[in-house]
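re: ur question from earlier - yeah i can do the single chain one, its not a big deal. heres the input i used so u can compare w yours
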Amino acid sequence: MGHIGPMITPIPSMGFFLPSLPVRPPLPDSPICKSSPQPIITQPIIITFHLVRYRRIRYVPPMKRLSWPIVLGSSLLALSALFYSIHYLVFHDAHHIFIYLLGDIGFVFIEVLLVTLIIHRVLEVKEKKARMNKINMVIGAFFSEVGAPLLKTLASYDTNIEELQASMVAEKENATRQFTLVSEILKSNKCEISTEGMDWVSLKDFLSSKREFLLGLLQNQNLLEHEYFTDVLWAVFHLTEELESRDSFGGLPDTDIQHMCGDMERVYGQLSQQWLAYMQHLETAYPYLFSLAIRTNPFSKNLTAVIGD
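and the output i got, formated as tokens:
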């Protein structure tokens, strides 16, 4: 016989018990009882609830819904009105109050002009100059490790390098004059690279060995503000990838050689202009570094740091 009375069914997920509905067994003469050879055992009906998670909505007072600038501004205006009221109650002189009130309001525009357009601009220029000094330190490290050796290698294949070298020999005792001549010639130079006799393997090995150093430079956040130097780094990276993509350089078609020659001319032109900008910075900020950099510049035929008699 099945259970007739109410049954208590535990529901662990809800943490409480729910009574199940009683089920009456079928009568002996019913079709169900005749067709079933086994006695019917009634089972409790378990009612399952699917709980829907919801976020409890918290009541926020109107004052908390306002942002703090609105609250602060309202408080300051209220305090100002309070003190003006006290002033009027004590002295009974509205004329004096409005004279100074209008004068103070009129000076606000001059104060905004001084603070936002003059003082802020001066501070911004000073901060930008400090950032540029840090960037130039990074650029100096780049030329010491990669830029100067690479520029020297590419300049040795420049078809117009003889004119530059002859001018520098004539002015070897004057660093400023040498820099002026280099600037004038490089600005008008077409940066034509000749691949005749080029040592592709040495150039590839050199750039591959400096890959980690170049990746470290790209991680410097200060360089994001120097777009031209970032373009120089990308050009050097592209040339490195082009060289590393070729296992050997023998038997390359002329079209491929011209393609890599164009990549080298891009690096050579951008690197030369960046070197001039860096030399201008050294000439102004660090004259002793400028003197050494000019005496050992990558465009000179005989690099020497020795100062002649």
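Residues 135-295 form one domain. not sure if urs matches, ping me
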